Amino acid sequence: MTRRELSADTRRFILTSIPSVPYLEAVLLLRTAPGADWDVPSVARRLYVPESRAVELLEAASAAGIFERQRDGNENRYRFHPSTPELAQRIDGLAEAYAEHLVPVTDLIHSRLDKRAQQFADAFRLRKDS
Fold first, then answer.
1. Torsion of CA 21, 26, 13, 122, to 10 degrees
2. Calpha distance 2→101 (Å, rounded)
3. Whether the Cβ atoms of residue 35 and residue 74 lie closer than 8 Å to each other
4. Residue 105: CA count within 13 A, CB half-sphere
5. pLDDT tens readout for residues 26-41
6. pLDDT tens-digit map of 10-24
7. Residue partners of 73: CB distance under 8 A and separation at least 6
8. Cα–Cα dist 43/38, whole Å
């Protein structure tokens, strides 16, 4: 299985819209129960991440138009609610790709992170001409 076996649309969506594997897993988790409200502790437990990380993931997906955030007393609750039908279709395609091609999808996400880390490191590299 190679990265080339992912559709061009799915590859582009991953590279432009999926910042990490935990983010992807948060999206797919809430997608499994459309219409259900999720609280931060429940998401943190299901993803095996600290609550602070769960908040980051949920807020990022909300800002991206994937989740809808609602206030329930003193806590926020989140629901899978893509802002457009096109976004919902892209997420459906990504869910299929992740189920069928787990390693290529995660490799693509990590390659994006590796590239950003290398760019950051290169910014601090001492140059001979400096």
1. -40
2. 9
3. no
4. 24
5. 999 999 998 899 999 9
6. 999 999 999 999 999
7. none
8. 7
Write the single-letter amino acid at 117.
Answer: A
Cα separation, 50 vs 12, in Å, equals: 29
* 61 DSSP β-pair partners: none
One-letter amino acid identity for 123?
A: A
**Nearest residue to 19 via CA among 123, 89, 106, 118:** 106
**Could you tell me if 47 and 29 are in contact, meaning their C-beta atoms sit under 8 angstroms apart?**
yes
For residue 37, report the phi and psi dihedrals to the nearest 5 degrees. Answer: -95, 135
Q: Is residue 104 within 8 Å of residue 3, measured between CB atoms?
A: yes
Is this structure's pTM higher than 0.85?
A: no
**CB neighbours of residue 45 within 10 Å:** 11
Q: Label residue 65 left, alpha or beta by phi (over 0 means left) and psi (-120 to 50 means alpha).
A: left
